[in-house]
Amino acid sequence: MKLMARLTKDQIKELFSKNWLTHDAMWYGSCVQELGPEKANQLNKGAVRLMAGIEIKRILKLMGKPKGYRAESFDDLSEILITAFQVVQTSFMKFEISFPEKNLLRGQFNYCFAYEGVKKFGLVETYDCGIAERVKGWLDALGVLYTSTDFAGCLMHQNGKCIIDFRFENM
């Protein structure tokens, strides 16, 4: 039997996600070696944010939303974000999202694959989190005005946990 016929959707999703994140980690490490951590962080965060804008548009298309769609209400935005997180989250991504009140998204990591990766390669002291940039890229592409937890570096490294709030202003 051919491999693709035996694999489940979750196994395929896991494989593609791990491959993409391995590329991301190797790219980041190469940038640190070639350009130094400051430039590598700038490039990484910029690339993630741009990729996320494209990613959310693809997710919207899969949801049957028309091209150029913008979230029209908090409930609409919540549905889009929940769907996006369901699409991208795999078993090794140990995070939770919640909406503790209207116009507030909270993301929480008690274990972070990115933190574990940069720690393993000895880069955690100079690493700036790129994961929050993914959500920012989604929100930017959706035309949502927001503020988010302001931080530099890696909250998991600094605090032993990572909690990031995104407060929406125009919902």
Explain the overall architecture.
The protein is of the alpha+beta class and 171 residues long. The protein has seven helices and four strands, in the order ααααββααβαβ. Strands 1-2-4-3 form a four-stranded antiparallel beta sheet. β1 and β2 (104-109) form a beta hairpin. α2 (9-35) runs antiparallel to α3 (37-62). The longest helix has 27 residues, at 9-35. The termini are far apart. The mean pLDDT is 93.
What kind of assembly state do the chains in view correspond to? single chain
Which overall shape is indicated by the principal axes computed on the Cα atoms? globular
- The number of helical elements comes to 7
Instruction: Give the helices and strands as they follow along the chain.
Output: HHHHEEHHEHE
- Physical arrangement of strands within the biggest beta sheet: 1-2-4-3
Rg from Cα: 17 Å
- What integer is the average pLDDT? 93
Spans where pLDDT lies below 50 across 5 or more residues: none
Helix-strand category: alpha+beta
Number of strands: 4
Please report which band the strand proportion falls in: under 5%, 5-15%, 15-25%, 25-35%, 35-45% or over 45%. Answer: 5-15%
Task: Please outline the major beta sheet.
Answer: 4 strands, antiparallel
What distance lies between the first and last C-alpha atoms, to the nearest angstrom? 50 Å
